[in-house]
Amino acid sequence: MHINLIAKREVKVGFRNPWSYSFMALFSLFSLGLLIIQSQSYMEGYTYTTGTMLNLILYLLPLMTMLLSSFSLTAEKEEGNWQLLSTYALTTSSFLTGKYVGQALVLIAIVCFGYGISGVAGLVLGKSFAVSTLLFLLVFSICLILLFLGIAMVIGALCRNRWQALTMGVSIWFFYILAWPTLLISVLSFVPYTWIKPLLQIVTFFNPAEFVRIYSVTRLGGGAIFGPEYYKWIYWMDSALGDVCFVALCLLWVGATLWIAARAWERR
């Protein structure tokens, strides 16, 4: 009951937030850019164009998710709303879960609107996305939103104000999206060769952007680009249990981040 109330409140507040409409406009322009990219080549399965589109989504969506959602949590502290809510019979886990669900609905609505704009524009121009491509990009985007929203909950629980959330959010985005490959290569160069393969697979679980990208590329038939280090990953992702394992991994990540956020919120 409390989760539903918090989620409904969060949806209302989210759609009144000018940041939401700024990100909606940005993502709409972004999706139109993706339409231009895909209209210049034929796409079936994994191609250079498909990889470019996935990477562009990886650059924008995690940052957008972490900033919008962490700001929502820190605003509760700055504006004193949490002090009022805490006087009611409301647990921290219910509060954060409600915030998570509400923010997820707002962000998914933004993404659906952006892809809808690009779909309509494509129909008008005669260069629309294939339905399968549009659905794949939508599912890929929703996975990123749900995973990085958990990280945003942790950021919001740890930070006292929006400036701290902005700094931490950009830092985490830079680490996971831009610096990850370079840092990984640098660190693995110091370990014995026989350790590289298992360590590479283990640390991938700690980067949601990376394992979503690997899963998506593998499902498109481009798993060979990751090399022999990920052969076992490619094998189980292409198996009948691949989707089940991926969903379980995502649920585990979301549950872990929400648990960490709840503990951090209570300590604050």
- Coarse structural class: mainly alpha
What is the H/E order? HHHHHHHHHHH
Beta content comes to: under 5%
Per the principal axes of the C-alpha atoms, what is the gross shape? globular
The largest pleated sheet is described as: none
Integer average pLDDT: 81
- Helix tally equals 11
Low-confidence residue ranges: none
Q: State the domain count.
A: 1
Helix content: over 70%
| Alpha carbon gyration radius | 20 Å
Give the number of DSSP strands. Answer: 0
Q: How would you describe what is shown here?
A:
- This protein is mainly alpha-helical and 268 residues long.
- The protein has one domain.
- Helices cover 82% and strands 0% of the residues.
- It contains 11 helices and no strands.
- The chain has helices at residues 2-16, 18-39, 48-78, 81-85, 92-125, 131-158, 162-188, 193-204, 208-219, 231-237, 242-267.
- Helix 2 (18-39) crosses helix 5 and helix 6 packs antiparallel against helix 9.
- It is globular and about 55 Å long.
- The protein starts with a helix and ends with a helix.
- The model has no long low-confidence stretch (mean pLDDT 81).
Q: Could you give a quick summary of the protein structure above?
A:
The chain has 268 residues and is mostly helical.
Please tag this protein with its features.
268 residues, mainly alpha, ABC-type transporter activity, ABC transporter permease, transmembrane, membrane, transmembrane helix
